[in-house]
Automatic annotation (TrEMBL):
PANTHER family xrefs: NADH OXIDOREDUCTASE HCR
2Fe-2S ferredoxin-type domain boundaries: 323-407
Coiled coil: none
Region spans: Disordered: 1-23
Gene3D superfamilies referenced in this protein's UniProt entry, alphabetically: 3.10.20.30, Nucleotide-binding domain of ferredoxin-NADP reductase (FNR) module, Translation factors
Highest rank taxon of the organism: Bacteria
Names of required cofactors: FAD
TM regions (residue ranges): 148-167
GO molecular function, one term: metal ion binding
Protein's UniProt name: Flavodoxin reductases (Ferredoxin-NADPH reductases) family 1
Keyword flag Membrane: yes
Domain FAD-binding FR-type: start-end pairs: 35-140
Amino acid sequence: MTEAAARHRTKVPPRPDRGVRMPWVLGTSPVPDPPAELALECLVRVQESPSIVSFTMRRRDGKPLAFRSGQYLSISVPAGPDGTPCERNYSISSSPLDCSVVRISVKREPQGLVSSWIHENLRPGMTVDALGPLGDFYPADVERRARFLLLAGGVGITPIASILWTLHKADGAASIDLIHHASRPEEFALSGELLDIAERDPRVRVHLSLGDRPCETWEGLAGRLDAEVIESLVPDACGRQVFACGPPGYLEAAKSVVVSLGVSPNSFFTESFLDTVQTGELEEEGAVAPAVWDTEAVSEAEVADAVDDIDGLPERDPDDPRPAVSFVRTGVRVMAEEGETILQAATREGITLRSNCANGMCGTCKVRTLAGDVDMRHNGGIRRREVEDGIILACCSRPEGDVVIDA
C-alpha cells in the first residue's frame, strides 16, 4: 500500500453499528426482571392531560425494577366494596434505562372503578401493591434492521412512549416514526417529551394527528389513520416493524392499513387496552360476569350438589374417563381432552372467557374454582393471595380430575 493510499484510508470515518441493541444486551442496565409481587411507593404525580395522570413510583424495598419497554404492571388498589382489592393493568410509560423508578400513566374512565380511585386517592408517599413486569409487547433485544413505525391511539401512547425512549437512547443506525392520534389537542399526553426527543435525535420523527374531529385552533395533521396518511409521512412503511397500541377499533384500522401497504403480519405487533383492561374498567362484551360464590361458606360437597341442580347442565357420564369441567354460571359441562386447558375447553364449547396472552402472564383470564384441582403453570400473572383464594388462570390451568368453575 502506498503512503498516499494509507493517508486516504485514515480519513474514512468508522462505519456506524448496524441496528440497535437493548441496554441489558450491552451490559449498561440490569437484565429485565421476571414477574414478582411488588410494593410501590408513589413519588411524583403529574397531570399529563385533562384525563391522564402520570405516577412515578419506586420499590419500597429499594431494589431496582428492571423491565422491557412496552411492558405493564398489574396495580391493586382498595377500590372495591369495603375497600376490597381490585386490579387493573397499566402500561409503563417510562424508560427502562432508569431502573430506580417506574412511571405509569392512567386515564380516568367515566365508569372506571380503579382509574377513578387512582385519580382521586393516589398521592406521593402512598404505597400500592403491584405485580410485574408483565407483557410481551416490546422490540427484540437485538434489532439489526432498526426501522420502526409506532402507532398510538389515545392513551395507547403509554407503552409506545417507553419504546420510543429506549430506541432513542440506544446507539446505532435506526429510523423511527411515531404517529399519535388523539381526540382533542389537549389529550396528546406525553407529547412534550416525545417532541423533545425528535428535536434532539435525527433518527426520530413524531407526528400528532387529531383524527377526524374538527378543531379551529388545531393547525396540525387531522384525519383518521389511513394508507394515504402513512404513505405521505412514512414512504418506506412496508419495510418497517409496526408497533401499535390503542382500543380495538383503532388496532383493526391500523392492521388493515399497514397490511394494504405491504407490511408483513409477522412485523405487526399490537397491544389492545380493552383486551388486557389496561385502561378499561368496562367489561368486554360477552365476557362472563365476575365470580359470586362464597367459597368459604360452602364445602366442596355442597358445591357439587348445587352443580347437579343447575338447569340445563347435562349429567356426568360415569364411564367417560376424561375430566369434567363444569361452568356453573353458563350451565355447561365440558369433557376436557388430554392436555387441554380450562380456556381451551371453554372456547371449544363456545363459552366466552376473557383472555389475552394465553401464556399465564397478563392475568386477564382469572376465574374462581369451586371444586376440584388444576395444574396451573403460570408466568407470574397471578398473586399468591389469589391462588390461596381459589383463583386460577384459565389459559394455563389443566384439570386434574373433575373441576367446577364459577363462570
